[in-house]
Amino acid sequence: MADALSKLLETRDWLLADGATGTNLFNMGLSSGDAPELWNVDEADKIRALYRGAVEAGSDIFLTNSFGGNASRLKLHAADKRVRELNIAAAELGREVAESAGRPVVVAGSVGPTGEIMEPMGTLSYATAVEMFHEQAEALKEGGADVLWVETISAPEEFKAAADAFQRAEMPWCGTMSFDTAGRTMMGVTSAAMAEMVDKLDYKPVGFGANCGVGASDLLRTVLGFAAAGTETPIIAKGNAGIPKYEDGHIHYDGTPELMADYAVLARDCGATIIGGCCGTMPEHLRAMREALETRPRGERPTLDEIAARLGGFSSASDGTGDDVPAPSRQRRRRRG
Amino acid sequence: MSDEEDIILSELDDGELVEQMQDDLYDGMAEEIVEGVEILLERGWVPYDILTKALVAGMTVVGNDFRDGILFVPEVLLAAKAMKAGMAILKPLLAETGAPRMGKMVIGTVKGDIHDIGQNLVTMMMEGAGFEVKNIGINNPAEEYIAACKEFNADILGMSALLTTTMPYMKIVIDELKEQGLRDDYIVMVGGAPLNEEFGTAIGADAYCKDAAVAVEMAKQLIAAKAA
């Protein structure tokens, strides 16, 4: 039997995902630095309100409050023994909200990065990463998540470790990476390289794409890169609502609902099927995105210039794909055998 | 590269060996760096010259290519690891010989922020450039930054934040330094994914550093400016 997300994708040519988790929770009083996952147990009503905010604004998919719910992250809050409990709670609350939505809504179990650097550069072994992701995956499954959703990943090995873990948990999944360094992930992965990696995975995702990163324009450039790679897998676009600005001791994202509405329609024109927001994206942004996706016609695939004109400029001249890849400037002298 | 001839480090003259060590740093070859350092020491090089002419010069190339988007974090981490292997031999010798210091830095993520990959990268790049760095880890309140700066006799205070919700805390630390009359004792550098130049200026930092390579350049410039 097909999973809930694949079924929705059969009937619709675009789906609206959700917006920010952190930004919303901070507005509800979460202190910066506290583990949001603890609220799945301690402040269940606020997590229900978070999920409902997205569903009522028109999201077809929402991500559970479990981004930092792996043992490596929870350990920093001395809660690494609570992985199972906190992830089950995250998914159960999601299930409850989705069931009462009155339309099909997909509960996606969010899985964030471990925060460790993998071998050989760092200390985290592939096997340990798989084990941590698997522990979280089983708990999200047990709590009733429809799909698993790994996000904000920068290292290809970590993405593959999550895929392996999800296969062990026998769960359908989606995965997004964060392209925040000159159009690549922090670890240097280009959009084209990610598309190629996803195509080669044994256990393929239902959808893949990009989340977070720099601004809406950069994110769409990345989506164009996925589309140019000729992938058959549905593409996910989850960009930030603009760029964070500092005013009077507070941070706010400068992306308006109108800008995010433009972004959503452009994302669809770029080839994305699953469209949502990330940091700074509130229910009012999602509402504007939904309305735009429902009412505005599809257009031609936009050029980079058109994207920059509508949403603002890019953070770097190139994103490492296509003909303008910077060649290593350095002539090798010689290398040892 | 098995069709190429093996290079025997000890058969190279000094100039070739230094160039080769810079290449090996670029490629993150720790064992070869250790071997190169040992050969130069045997040939009577003073530790400070090995540090600056071979290692720091090599890491400068790595830093520039990182800044220019030619190298990415994985390559830089491997280069820094190789650098560190060489430094492990040189460090005690540098102290014994009273070699000049580049400067000292205290670095940590601000209170509420547990994301330390960025500052770990800055630590490695700064060490790669010859600075002494005390990395005080995650979640630091103002008093811990200030205590560490005093204890370590730091020239530079570096603060890192990954979250928009934690970055305003940098201003609290700077205000506390002012309050205690210590602001001018330290160069304050800030960095992290959501920050920008405008934010650095708004909170009164001496420099906003877009990435680890920029941090090294800014540190060198600001130390030189302060000494002048």
From TrEMBL, chain A:
Gene3D superfamilies: Homocysteine-binding-like domain
Keyword field: Cobalt, Metal-binding, Methyltransferase, S-adenosyl-L-methionine, Transferase, Zinc
Name the record gives this protein: Methionine synthase I
Enzyme class: transferase
Residues bound to Zn(2+): 212, 278-279
Family annotation (InterPro entries): HCY_dom, HCY_dom_sf, Met_Synthase/Corrinoid
Family designation: Belongs to the vitamin-B12 dependent methionine synthase family.
NCBIfam families from the UniProt entry: PRK07534.1 (NF005718)
Domain (Hcy-binding) ranges: 3-293
Biased composition (Basic and acidic residues): 294-308
GO biological process, one term: methylation
EC number: 2.1.1.13
Organism: Actibacterium atlanticum
Molecular function terms, GO-annotated: metal ion binding; methionine synthase activity
From TrEMBL, chain B:
UniProt domain B12-binding N-terminal: residue ranges: 8-102
Gene Ontology BP annotations: homocysteine metabolic process; tetrahydrofolate metabolic process
A UniProt-annotated Pfam family: B12-binding
GO CC annotations, alphabetized: cytosol
Domain named B12-binding: residues: 102-228
Molecular function GO labels: cobalamin binding; metal ion binding; methionine synthase activity
Keywords: Cobalt, Metal-binding
Family of this protein: Belongs to the methylamine corrinoid protein family.
The protein's name: Dimethylamine corrinoid protein
Native organism: Actibacterium atlanticum
Lineage: Bacteria, Pseudomonadati, Pseudomonadota, Alphaproteobacteria, Rhodobacterales
